[in-house]
Amino acid sequence: MIEMKGVNKTYRVRRREAGLGNAVKSLFSRAYTEIPALRDMTFTIPDGQIVGYIGPNGAGKSTTVKILSGILRPDSGTCLADGLVPWEDRKRHVARLGVVFGQRSQLWWDVPVIDSFELLRDIYRVPEARYRENLDRLTELLDLADLLKTPARMLSLGQRMRCEIASALLHSPRLLFLDEPTIGLDAVSKLKVREFILEQNRQCGTTVILTTHDMQDVDALCSRVLLIGKGRLLLDGSTAEIRAMAGDNLSTEESVADLYRRFGI
Amino acid sequence: MKKYLTFFRIRLLAGLQYRAAALAGLSTQFVWGTMEVLIYRVLWREHPERFPMGPEALAAYIWLQQAFLSLFALWNWEWELIDSVKTGVVAYELTRPADLYGMWLVRTLATRLSRGLLRAAPVMVLGALIPAPWGLRLRVSPADFGLFLVSTCLMLLVVCAYNLLVCALTFHLTDPNGVMVVSVAAADLLGGAIVPLPFLPEGLRKFAELTPFGAMQNVPLRLFGGDLTGAAAYRAMGLQVFWAAVLIAVGYALLRAGLRRVSVAGG
After folding, report:
1. Could you list the mean pLDDT of each consecutive 10-residue stretch along chain A, which spans 265 residues?
2. B109, CA 20 to 30 Å: which among A147, A183, A227, B42?
3. Is A58 within a domain?
4. What domain range is A242 assigned to?
């Protein structure tokens, strides 16, 4: 179970106008703007749910995920994941957490995928029997058999993403964060990844938080949607409820776009 | 502990796959070593009385330096780590139940060892084929050779800790390039990369030996050639221990401070 209560986070960003004069001026006095990334963020996610966390670019999605992963500490507010404060009990918390950042890679670039897996096995201290079992299951479900001996740099994006997802699940985490896991994937790979996430959730009861811009992901996977904009939680409900709010038989994609406009975000 | 060993094994195996790079490095280092030896030979013929170290010790210094270049040289940065901080991939490392500094240290050590060991043997063999006194010979006693091995380990710690210090600084700077350039220039002169420290003017040499750069290749290379012995050897190794401890402590602190205020860039 994940509980977030009244979490605030503000970034300080340096700004200056274009041009040489302003560049010189900024050498002496710098102008900073405070950008509130999260404002009074509050929600609870029970075990075993697949939650879609959606919002336009810069809404604060990644910030939330980073706070929940213990990478960032918020300015104020409380957060508990299975009884642990992520940024304070970082090591214990992340031991039961799996993360996929779709735009980054956790596989070792120039060694075969299986080597990265074995390293993760040892980092997370997964017992050999359980590692075998997980690896066999993931290999079968994600169709990895031919990929494991290939260096990560030689994989296509879709192949790599399947390996990334597998590497986040080798230690049987109870909690899985997927940050745009289907970005850039072709139709076949997308379907495969979606199918797998559902399967993982059904079989192991893994709680999944999914951030994405792909509303078909949301339709296919999420029983619940959290819509955020400008750092605030705007809506908490099912995809059906979101479509109902927008009305006129719109698709989820159109409904969400309509809501973005309506909330002015 | 096991994770560090696995890390090490994988890095070592991965390092072995760069055959072309190893071959290129090998020939470069042999030619470079030969050139240096030729230059010193001319100088020796003209003014042997002005040499602060004998040709045998000098030859040992040069050949060993070339053989273990990627092990010893400060400029052998861990680019993957620096890039991971710059691009934010380091976020992944933070989602692991492991100490970041520890993982980084093992990683730099493993990279250096894999690159260094792969290339060392052939250059040493070639160096040993050069006729005396300008060839590579083992002339020190087993006890001194033991000191050389210990000092090499200490040197590795100092160099890796210095590398990690720059990686940790990357959290605080937009780009660590400036720090790197200055560090490499300082290490070239004060670390005995261009000419062995005994060739420097007295005052500069004494200063250089006290800096962290003087605690790098300077110590093991001179131990191997028999140029550094007795009390001076122990003093130099004591400084190595000191600098390794200081650099690790500062790097660790910088990394912690960096992580506390980290805002992982982008996405």
Report:
1. 91 77 78 84 94 87 88 89 89 90 83 91 92 93 91 89 92 92 86 90 92 89 91 88 78 83 80
2. A147
3. yes
4. 2-7+43-263
Gap between the Cα atoms of B179 and B192, Å rounded: 19
Cβ neighbours of residue A263 under 8 Å, at least 6 residues apart?
A: A229, A234
The verdict on residue A253 lying in a domain is: yes
Q: What crossing angle do the helices spanning B2-15 and A113-123 adopt, rounded to 10°?
A: 160
CA angle A97, B262, B177 (to 5 degrees): 120
Structure tokens at A213: 């811009």
Residue A28 falls within a domain, yes or no?
no
Cβ of A74 under 8 Å from any chain B Cβ?
Answer: no
Written as one string, the DSSP assignment of B75-101 is T---HHHHHHHHHSTHHHHHTSSS-HH
Token pair for B103: 């993982």
Q: Please determine, for residue B265, whether its predicted confidence score (pLDDT) is greater than 60.
A: no
Q: What are phi and psi of B253, to 5 degrees?
A: -65, -45
The complex scores an ipTM of 0.74
Q: Report chain B's terminal Cα–Cα distance, integer Å.
A: 33
Chain B's closest residue to A126, CA to CA, is B3
C-alpha to C-alpha distance for B136 and A215, rounded to whole angstroms: 68
In this prediction, residue A175 carries a pLDDT of 93
What's the number of domains chain A is made of?
1
Judge whether A57 lies within some domain.
yes
Judge whether A93 and A70 are in contact, CB under 8 Å: yes
CA distance B267 to A179: 9
Domain at A222, CATH number: 3.40.50.300
- CB–CB of B14 and A110 under 8 A? yes
Closest to B63 measured CA to CA, from B201, B188, B217: B217
Q: Nearest chain A residue to B96 by CA: give it.
A: A94
* pLDDT at res. B264: 46
Q: Could you tell me the CA-to-CA distances from A65 to A74, A261, B46, B53 in Å, in that order?
A: 12, 24, 70, 61
